[in-house]
Amino acid sequence: MARGEHDAARHPRPNSPTPPSRPAPDPGDAPVCRLARALRGWLVAAGPVLPALAVIVLLCAPTDPAHTAGSGHVTPADAASALLVGYCALRLLRTGRRPLSPLAALTLAAPAAGVGLATAASLDPAASLTGFVRALQVFVLVPAALVLLLRDRRDFRTVALAVTVLAVVQGAVGVHQYATGTGASYMGQDIRAVGTFGAVDVMGMSTVVSYGLLVALAIGLAPPAGSPRWLRPAALGTAVALLVPLAVSFSRGAWIATAAAGCAVVLLAGRRTALRVLATATAAGVVLVGGAGVGSQMIGERLDSITDVTAAPDQSVTDRYTMWAAAVSMWRQYPATGVGPRGFPDHRDGHASLALSSGSDTAGAGRGFNREPLLSPHNMYLLVLGEQGLIGLTALAGSWAVLLVGGLRRLRAARRGAARGADCGLVATGLLVWQTVDFLYADIGGPSTVLTGVVFGLAAWWALAPNATRGPEDRTTGQPPAVPPGALPGAREAASADARPREAVG
After folding, report:
1. Which of 11, 210, 350, 389 is the most exposed, fewest CB within 10 Å of its CB?
2. Closest by Cα among 281, 285, 311 to 299
3. What pTM, to 2 d.p., does this model score?
4. How far apart are CA 403 and CA 405, in angstroms?
């Protein structure tokens, strides 16, 4: 080789073309891998609320009509609520987080103490054990789990949005049942909207729809800061649309509770907003019931029956008043602790008058004619009074009173600008007002009961949790969340403890 050629081989010219080197493809850049990373990130971020979402989603599953509301059948949503409580307990053990402030612990434990004492003093403690577990699930364990698992207002809104989606799904099924005559039997026609809950739990769909309506109304009146412009009209439109399945549910108790809670939410949102919303709601009611004729005749007759309680009440009203009197009679015989949880059916005949019928007729929605026994007085306050006595009723009602007062104080601070999250406050207050009013005409029972525990959990989180004033931006700052002037005692210390770094649970 010549000398020049040898030098050229050792020192190539800068301008000589060299083949470009392509980097080796990274397997992590594949679309499937990116999707998997995004899904994993979402699961890690939403991990604590996933069990609560599972409870809500499983309420869409149709219930077996062979099981009655009082059979004690465990539904998939009930099983999911057990997983929710178990997950919360494991997470507390893993993170070593301070569980609850003294006030929150006392408020949530009071119903457990009342029902526990009534079970111990029951005439049949073994039979009362199932009622004890049910009351513990709905009023203590599920609410406490949500108070501990929800980290900030975004988690709260996620659960509330899931309730609204459930309401839309159940409402759509209910409207289809009314339109096609495949619902539960009402006045000889299979037109009563019951959703997937069946003819036995006729209050299930109306309860879920009422929850979703109030959530949508609250978000429409006070949308979160930084939310898109379309959120307000979409939320208010959803609330108006949910009036249709609520109307064709023919549930008088749900109508009354929704009207009371809706008025409370509107008034708490401000005077000017109240006037506009009430005018719009009146016009929508005229169009839906009067103009469009959405069951106007039957709905009018159902509304008239609310006032016909003394002149010519129907048999359902007569049965209800008779069972109310029976519950009061049980309390008079056992004033302190009552007859024990789930003791009302066994003692009913010994305290009820002859005006009580043998049961209620159910049919339709995939179920043949059946006569269901009257297992409760359809009044939660009187049911607790008769089964748990004055001690149990005081503990339960006192716990709800603390939640309502604490929620209103925080909502007031949020509206004055001392804290954030007015939309969450309106949602929690509206749901709590609805539940306390509805319990004048209903009680727990049926597949939809577990959702009542979720509602109390949302209300308890807003009223008691120190992180109720936290936003998503506070998750990574490590700074203690602001405590509004209206916060309950002990919130400042719990807020500082909650701000300590914790290990993420995925």
Report:
1. 11
2. 285
3. 0.82
4. 6
